[in-house]
Design brief:
Layout: H1 5-18, H2 25-45, H3 53-65, E1 78-82, H4 90-96, E2 101-106, H5 109-121, E3 127-131, H6 134-137, E4 147-153, H7 158-165, E5 169-179, H8 183-189, H9 191-196, E6 199-207, E7 216-223, H10 237-240
Parallel strand pairs: 1-2, 1-4, 2-3, 4-5
Antiparallel strand pairs: 5-7, 6-7
Bound molecules: S-adenosylmethionine (SAM).
S-adenosylmethionine binds near residues 105 and 134.
Length: about 240
């Protein structure tokens, strides 16, 4: 291990304080356990190329958490994280929103296996990791039109992501997409998808992740009406022929 627990926690606390995020000793311990397990199992489960402690703190943990201050925390919510990978942002958000229920979805069985073991180690309740493709699950009862929020980071461009995500949302629900500086051109290219899926961009927010030079943005999408049942199209089609 290239860093000890005290140094890891010092760096993590510094970032959380800069983000103005309320945290407890339990959060710090859980994120340390998360980091250790992620680091140990990274190769086996092919998780991420970012593995140095400082980078994991900034690019995975703080980047996942930076949206907390933009959420309405008054009511408990049901979340879906599409293409969650090693749990970013879904599992990290769950630690800070313990009363919300989280569904983590990924098309890689290995990653889901990792997340199930991690959830067990952290003794988390109200979290479920599922192996599958968004296009398939969005047609299943109990998944379609049943989430208050969908999150997704680094999975696809906006026009594709909308077709994956919007059918999962309840009418009035919102999706949170983590994006880079190219988000404006993605919005332009997604005009037709927004129209066909009866969704609108509620807001775009510049995110400040402490110590991160890369520009980060949050796109908040609102679902306006029930989705046409032809969406999403068959698995693979949204990516091959985006709306
Ligand atoms: C680049 S990784 C990003 C992982 C994580 N969200 C992050 O930010 O670190 C993209 C992930 O999306 C998953 N994925 C891609 N297309 C998908 C789909 N249609 N349905 C479910 N998962 C998908 C991949 O298996 C992969 O784990």
């Amino acid at each position: 291990m290239e860093i000890n627990k005290d140094d890891f926690i010092n760096k993590l606390e510094k970032g959380l304080k800069e983000l103005n995020i309320y945290y407890s000793q339990q959060h710090l311990d859980q994120l340390w356990q998360y980091y250790c397990f992620f680091k140990k199992e990274n190769k086996k489960y092919n998780l991420s190329s970012i593995t140095k402690a400082e980078e994991v703190i900034k690019k995975h943990f703080l980047d996942s958490l930076v949206i907390l201050k933009h959420l309405d925390l008054r009511e408990k919510k049901r979340w879906l994280d599409i293409g969650t990978g090693a749990g970013f942002p879904g599992l990290v958000l769950k630690l800070f929103l313990p009363g919300d229920s989280f569904y983590l979805l990924d098309s890689s069985a290995k990653k889901i296996n990792f997340l199930n073991q991690l959830s067990y180690k952290l003794d988390l309740q109200g979290i479920r990791a599922t192996h599958g493709r968004a296009e398939d699950l969005a047609r299943v009862d109990g998944w379609r039109a049943s989430f208050d929020h969908v999150s997704s980071r680094a999975v696809a461009s906006l026009n594709i992501l909308l077709e994956y995500a919007v059918p999962f949302l309840k009418v009035g629900g919102s999706a949170f997409f983590y994006k880079g500086p190219e988000y404006k051109s993605e919005i332009e290219a997604a005009e037709k998808a927004l129209d066909l899926l009866d969704a609108q961009i509620k807001t775009s927010i510049k995110l400040d992740v402490p110590g991160l030079e890369a520009e980060r943005y949050l796109l908040v999408i609102e679902k306006l009406k029930e989705s046409d049942e032809k969406y999403p199209r068959r698995a693979g089609i949204p990516n091959k022929r985006p709306l």
